[in-house]
C-alpha cells in the first residue's frame, strides 16, 4: 500500500467538484487499490475521514472511520465505511453547532452548524447499496466528508470567525466545554 499526499487549503483541487464514478471503474483493480491507499492514508494521518479529492483524485469516494481517535478523543466511534457516489438528505430541521478540523486545513478548528440527522444513500466499495440515517456527531462527520466532494471546506461554514482556534489553544481553552457539549449531543442522538 502507498501513503498518498494530502492536498492543503489553497490548492485548487480542493475546490473542484468531484465526478461520479461508474460501476465498471469501481470494480477495477486500480480503484480498489486506490481505496486501500485512501484508508491507509486516513489511518496514518489519524483522520476521522478522508475524501478522494483530498488526495488529488477528484472522484466521488470518501472513507470514514473513528476508533478512539487521538485527534478527536471525544468523538463516538464509526466503523470503517467507504462511500461511493454518496447523496445526503437532511432528515428534519434539527441542527447543532460543533468544532471541526480537517486534514487539508492544518492546525485550525472552527465551529460549524450541521444537520442533526441525514439520510445517506451511496454504494459501498463493492457497489452494494447503502441506505441509512446518520445521527448526531456522526452525521456531522458524514456531512464534512461529503462536502469535500463538492469542493467545500469546513472553513466556508464557520459563521463566527472568533471561534477559529489552533489545536493547541483549543485544548487549552475550549476542549473541556466541547467534551460536555458533545456528550449532550451523543446522549440526544445516540452517536
Ligand atoms: Ni476534511
Write a compact overview of the structure shown:
By secondary structure, this protein is of the alpha+beta class. Helices cover 29% and strands 29% of the residues.
The biggest sheet, with number of strands, parallel, antiparallel or mixed sense and barrel status, is: 5 strands, antiparallel
CATH superfamily: Peptide deformylase
Helix content: 25-40%
Give the second-level CATH assignment, the architecture.
Alpha-Beta Complex
Cofactors and ligands present? Answer: nickel (II) ion
Q: List how many beta strands DSSP finds.
A: 7
Q: Which stretches are low in confidence, meaning pLDDT under 50 for 5 or more residues running? A: none
**What's the overall geometry?**
globular
Report strand %. Answer: 25-35%
**Oligomer classification:** single chain
H-E string = HHEEEEEEEHHH
Output mean pLDDT.
Answer: 96
Textual characterization of the structure:
By secondary structure, the chain is α+β, with helices and mostly antiparallel strands. The protein has one domain (12-189): Peptide Deformylase (Alpha-Beta Complex), CATH 3.90.45. Helix content is 29%, strand content 29%. It contains five helices and seven strands, in the order H-H-E-E-E-E-E-E-E-H-H-H. It has a five-stranded antiparallel beta sheet, sandwiched between helices. The protein has a two-stranded antiparallel sheet with strand order 4-5. The longest helix has 16 residues, at 29-44. It is globular, with a radius of gyration of 16 Å. The mean pLDDT is 96. Residues 102-104, 144, 148 line the site of nickel (II) ion.
